[in-house]
From TrEMBL:
This is Monosaccharide-sensing protein 1. It catalyses: sucrose(out) + H(+)(in) = sucrose(in) + H(+)(out); D-glucose(out) + H(+)(in) = D-glucose(in) + H(+)(out). The chain crosses the membrane at residues 43-62, 74-92, 98-121, 133-157, 163-185, 571-593, 605-626, 632-659, 671-691, 697-720. One of its GO terms (molecular function) is transmembrane transporter activity. Keywords: Membrane, Phosphoprotein, Sugar transport, Transmembrane, Transmembrane helix, Transport, Vacuole.
């Protein structure tokens, strides 16, 4: 995981440059207006500050589509170049118009970084620590503000502060960012897969995960290219099979599924949960009844569906750890190490014949040539096998190889306790012919006691008693995106990992077509856009800009300004130091948020931090409306402001961008992120320029009262509409959105 952490940290430097610029211009503008004599030109003065905001808004409108076309990494490189050039032009700036041009270039760089860095981190991070890594931009942005305030404060102490030097220093860290983007940052593996560049994607994944065997995750990335499609939820009881259970016995039972180990006698039999097991608590039964439950009419069923995944954790040290080796506690953010699995001789012989592949002349990628699923002979009705490199996944009960941390390891895990598998399914058409196809299955273990009293699961040829161990697993079942017509004719158990743009694909449009506006109207994408745009709007109107604007005045009333003046500081230097101290207070809170993001989760953090924001704003309203002594007023206001900042950066600060980078399908992620980011910047402009007008019309108490109401609305919105996405692979998240949205639409139609 070290590579993923370092890459996320390097990418987040783009946000550090944004924070650096925001703080620098706040101090430099005090000296700029003196040199250019702008005291009587408030419009020009405002444009100097706002031009970067305008540039960010403009570039955001096209950044998503361009990033889907060129890739994430080139856009980050362009962002660093724009930062660097803007710094050089600001150093030169012979007049205010050149300065405005430089600020516009700077805004372009900011817009690209703020929009694409969260996407890049989400697409490269392991699911278990994706929230932590996606909090880096918030941390580096605040760190950049703090360093910048310290620099500007130091320069303000000189007899003649040089504002050009203040702004031009931006070129130094932007040059570092450029070097890292060129020589250190890889391209997003998900974007590479979407363009059919499978060899490169595999190499990047191996670097990011620190292991050779990435077959399961490679298959996951390809499966994530689809938008929409029919998805169903099933639930299986999985128990150990014995030598008495033959393949013919399994194929004779329509509701039986067999999971194979790599050697003879090491296999498991799975049976779908039916009505007679209605007491079983699982994902499928929860989802099947949620729409009809009373009291759930207001809460989005999608929230309940996501929540069911996180309700229970599996027991370790048994067959559960064998079948689901990568499912650790959601409260462990450590890495899931996966071993490099050797081909065993038996399966190597069975798989010796050539499989369809991308046909590249110099392709040496064994993972891409060999099947993800072994062609071990079984019945053709329903067979399910985990994806592996060249052979079946190691399902040895009690003998699975261990990693250095003692955790079980395997190649089928795709993160967060989810496993990817396939099954072959046939159905009879109206004309009597049989049609077959592959089904993709995302398996997730339910936490069921190792022994269930009073229940016996009967399998052909063997009974699994109540004292025996078994696994209960929920499954998202849908049409596989990746399989070849060549293999379909041969009737294998599972698909081969072939190049997605190769001629052997049955449905090449699933993996070759680019994003389209039509995809945005797919129910799952529409639902995700509602969540993403809604939370971005509410974040901007929650009061952060107003509190930032008012903070120096509050701290000055608290006596900080008088104290600093007694130390010999000018009012300008004192204001800069106060702002720097305010930023410093945010950093410990962001560090706490980093840890909690993958433990408590995004939804939980929002629901628990928003009430503190509401209370802080209400106290500020009371302090502004009620007459009290200056000491009491200053003390209460200072505590409220500090609490607001600390809890904002723990929840409502980073989480909207994190959620927006997680909930959209790969094919339309760039466009959807651009829509959400555009909402962010437009909201920022509205709030920034409406604040002075509101202060004059309704006063400070009225402004903070409005912000408090927005925070209440935000809490209700999060409670009803925002699901918990911690620890889940991006492709599983989008599958849930598609499934939940279609279930809601079907319920409305009925």
């Amino acid at each position: 995981m070290n590579a993923a952490v370092l890459i996320a940290l390097a990418a987040a430097i783009g946000n550090m440059l944004q924070g650096w610029d925001n703080a620098t211009i706040a101090g430099a503008v005090l000296y700029i207006k003196k040199e250019f004599k702008l005291e009587t030109e408030p419009t020009i003065e405002g444009l100097i500050v706002a031009m970067s905001l305008i540039g960010a808004t403009c570039i955001t409108t096209c950044s998503g589509g361009i990033s889907d076309w060129l890739g994430r990494r080139p856009m980050l490189i362009i962002s660093s170049v724009l930062y660097f050039l803007s710094g050089l032009v600001m150093v030169w700036s012979p007049n205010v118009y050149i300065l405005l041009l430089a600020r516009l270039l700077d805004g372009f760089g900011i817009g690209l970084a703020v929009t694409l860095v969260p996407v890049y981190i989400s697409e490269t991070a392991p699911p278990e620590i994706r929230g932590l890594l996606n909090t880096f931009p918030q941390f580096t942005g605040s760190m950049g503000m703090f360093f910048s305030y310290c620099m500007v404060f130091g320069m303000s102490l000189s007899p003649s502060p040089n504002w050009r030097l203040m702004l031009g220093v931006l070129s130094i860290p932007s040059l570092v960012y450029f070097v890292l983007a060129i020589f250190f940052l890889p391209e997003s593996p998900r974007w590479l897969v979407s363009k059919g560049r499978m060899d490169e994607a595999k190499q990047v994944l191996q670097r990011l995960r620190g292991r050779e065997d990435v077959a399961g995750e490679m298959a996951l990335l390809v499966e994530g290219l689809g938008v929409g499609g029919e998805t169903s939820i099933e639930e299986y009881i999985i128990g150990p099979a014995t030598d008495d259970v033959e393949d013919d016995d399994i194929s004779a039972e329509k509701d039986q599924i067999k999971l194979y180990g790599p050697e003879a006698g090491q296999s498991w039999v799975a049976r779908p949960v039916t009505g007679q097991h209605g007491s079983t608590i699982g994902l499928a039964s929860r989802h099947g009844s949620m729409l009809s439950q009373t009291g759930q009419g207001l809460v989005d069923p999608l929230v309940t569906l996501f929540g069911s995944v996180h309700e229970k954790l599996p027991e370790q040290g048994s067959m559960r750890g064998t079948l689901f080796p990568n499912f650790g506690s959601m409260f462990s953010v450590g890495g899931n190490q996966v071993r490099h699995e050797e081909w065993d001789e038996e399966n190597a012989a069975m798989e010796g014949e050539d499989y369809a592949h991308d046909g590249a002349a110099n392709d040496s990628d064994d993972n891409l040539r060999s099947p993800l699923i072994s062609r071990q002979a079984t019945g053709m009705d329903k067979d399910i096998l985990p994806t592996v490199h060249g052979s079946l996944t190691n399902l040895r009960q009690g003998s699975l190889m261990q990693s250095t941390t003692g955790e079980p390891i395997g190649s089928t895990g795709i993160g967060g306790g989810w496993q990817l598998a396939y099954k072959w399914s046939e159905k009879e058409t109206s004309d009597g012919k049989k049609e077959g196809g592959f089904k993709r299955i995302y398996l997730h273990q339910e936490n069921v006691p190792a022994s269930r009293r009073g229940s016996i699961i009967s399998l052909p040829g063997v009974d699994i008693s109540a004292e025996s161990e078994y696994v209960q697993a929920s499954a998202l079942v849908s049409q596989a995106a990746l399989y070849s017509s060549e293999l379909e004719k041969q009737h294998p158990v599972g698909p081969a990992m072939v190049h997605p743009v190769g001629p052997a694909m049955v449905h090449p449009d699933e993996t070759t077509k680019g994003p389209s506006w039509h995809d945005l109207f797919e129910p799952g994408v529409k639902h995700a856009l509602l969540v993403g745009v809604g939370i971005q709007i509410l974040q901007q109107f929650s009061g952060i800009n107003g509190v930032l604007y008012y903070t120096p005045q509050i701290l000055e009333q608290a006596g900080v300004g008088v104290l600093l003046s007694n130390l010999g500081l000018t009012s300008t230097s004192a204001s800069l130091l106060i702002s720097g101290l305010t930023t410093l207070l945010m950093l410990p809170s962001i560090v706490i948020a980093m840890r909690l993001m993958d433990l408590a989760g995004r939804r939980s953090l929002l629901l628990n931090t928003l009430p503190v924001l509401i209370i802080s704003l209400v106290i500020l309203v009371i302090g502004s409306a009620v007459k009290m002594s200056s000491v009491v007023h200053a003390s209460i206001s200072t505590v409220s402001v500090v609490l607001y900042f600390c809890f904002f950066v723990m929840g409502f600060g980073p989480i909207p961008n994190i959620l927006c980078s997680e909930i959209f399908p790969t094919r339309v992620r760039g466009i959807c992120i651009a829509i959400c980011a555009l909402t962010f910047w437009i909201g920022d402009i509205i709030v920034t320029y409406s604040l002075p007008v509101l202060l004059k019309s309704v006063g400070l108490a009225g402004v903070f009262g409005m912000y408090a109401v927005v925070c209440v609305v935000a809490w209700v919105f999060v409670f009803l509409k925002v699901p918990e996405t911690k620890g889940m692979p991006l492709e599983v998240i989008t599958e849930f959105f598609a499934l939940g949205a279609k279930q809601v639409e079907a319920a409305k139609e009925n």
